Amino acid sequence: MKKPTTPTATITRCPTCGSAKIRRVRKTLTRTHAGRTYVVPDLAFWQCPVCGERVYDRAALRQIEAHSPAYHKARRAAAR
Questions:
Q1: Contacts of 9 (CB under 8 A, 6+ apart)
Q2: Would the pTM of this model clear 0.70, i.e. be above it?
Q3: DSSP secondary structure string for all residues of 52-65
Q4: Which residues, listed in sequence order, are joined to residue 33 by a DSSP beta bridge?
Q5: What are the C-alpha distances in Å from 47 to residues 4, 35, 37, 56, 76?
Q6: Percent of the chain scored above 70 by pLDDT?
Q7: pLDDT in tens, 27-62
Q8: What's the start-to-end Cα distance of the chain, in Å?
């Protein structure tokens, strides 16, 4: 069972448009890097419904890095 993530900060205004409607959401993120699609399940981040801005805290960035092929390649090169 996954431990719920607690946000490291509370965001009350969107840093892009200034809207107070920004909310913490939990979604599956699907992205493509260098032609390879990867999925980050159950990712918690802040999203503004007005402009679409997304703000990722440290825990979310670590979760993205763990799934992204870009970071896998960098880790393999550093380990050599």
A1: 57
A2: yes
A3: --EE--HHHHHHHH
A4: 36
A5: 18, 26, 22, 9, 32
A6: 80
A7: 999 999 999 999 999 999 999 999 999 999 999 999
A8: 34
Look up residue 27 and give its amino acid. K
Q: Sketch out the chain's domains with CATH numbers.
A: 23-79 (3.10.20)
Structure tokens given for 23: 């909310």
CB neighbour list of residue 55: distance below 8 Å, 6 or more residues apart = 11, 15, 22, 45, 46, 47
1 pLDDT above the threshold of 60: no
The string of DSSP codes covering 5-50 is: PPPSS---S-TTT--TT-EEEEEEEEEEETTEEEEEEEEEEEE-TT
Which residue did the predictor score with more confidence, 22 or 79? 22
Which pLDDT does position 75 carry in this prediction?
Answer: 58
Look at phi and psi of residue 66 and say left if phi exceeds 0, alpha if psi is from -120 to 50, else beta.
alpha
